[in-house]
Write a structure and sequence with these properties.
SH3 type barrels; 257 residues; DUF5641; 9 strands; Integrase catalytic domain-containing protein; two-stranded parallel sheet; nucleic acid binding; 5-stranded antiparallel β-sheet; RNaseH-like_sf; alpha/beta; RNaseH_sf
Length: 257
């Protein structure tokens, strides 16, 4: 929570992911101090080096003071991750190696989550994910392995990490799904799902880090006239799912530049 800790975390991030163009954060003293330190270091460079590094300079965007809701997008996701981790690990003792492996696998789960789809190619519903933007491909993980909970008592640390990751996935999906379908009261009808919509199927029974995305091919109407069930085509397989488990994805315009 201090300036040095933030700068070291930023150094680890840039070494793995590259230098970000901008950072959005709150008014924490660690972030403000880190911004000041980087600015002073840049100002002390020679004019020649300054001109070379100017394009790699990070722009900090600070939320207004006492306005945590400005960071609502990431704050809510952090809360979901913390709650799922607390339920998954609880008071049990785990080694640093196990915990680090689980946390980095969680990073992979979150970065494989669909953000949307390219609107110009509806026939290909492969979603745009953070992993795709960062690495140029969707998934970089090893083949998933599931072990019974009884292996938690074994000395096999690898199996321990896989079981904890599975537990995290199940708890995270249960707490994350309601955030995608937030609804204030029930005073207004929510628009029905439409045919050919691109949706993500959210199901805790799916293997972890699997976010199936497909096209709605059929809408099943209830007796009251509302759409509560739909058929979704994912690649060459059709799923029948309640609308409550389907999240419409936004269309991302293809960059024409």
């Amino acid at each position: 929570m201090d300036t040095d800790s933030f700068l070291m975390a930023l150094q680890r991030f840039t070494s793995r992911r590259g230098t970000p163009a901008e950072i959005l954060c709150d008014q924490g003293t660690n972030f403000k101090g880190g911004h000041k330190e980087l600015q002073e270091a840049f100002n002390n460079l020679s004019p020649t080096l300054k001109s070379v590094l100017a394009t790699r300079k990070i722009n900090f965007h600070f939320n207004p003071p006492y306005a945590p809701h400005f960071g609502g997008v990431w704050e809510r996701e952090i809360r979901s991750v913390k709650n799922a981790l607390k339920t998954t690990i609880g008071a049990q003792m785990v080694t640093e190696q196990v915990l680090r492996t689980v946390l980095i696998e969680i990073e992979g789960i979150l970065n494989s989550k669909p953000l949307g789809y390219v609107s110009s190619d509806v026939a290909d519903t492969d979603p745009v994910t953070p992993n795709l933007l960062i690495m140029g491909r969707h998934d970089a993980s090893l083949p998933l392995v599931s072990y019974p909970d009884s292996d938690l008592l074994s000395r096999r640390r690898w199996r321990h990490t896989q079981i904890l990751s599975d537990h995290f996935w199940k708890h995270f999906i249960k707490s994350y799904l309601p955030l995608l379908q937030t609804r204030q009261k029930w005073k207004r009808d929510k628009p029905d799902l439409t045919l050919n919509s691109i949706v993500m199927i959210v199901d805790s029974q799916h293997p972890r880090a699997l976010w199936p995305v497909g096209k709605v091919t059929n809408l099943l109407q209830s007796k009251d006239g509302c759409i509560r069930t739909a058929k979704v085509l994912v690649k060459d397989k059709t799923y029948v799912r309640p609308v409550a488990n389907l999240i419409p994805l936004p269309a991302i315009p293809k960059d024409t530049h």
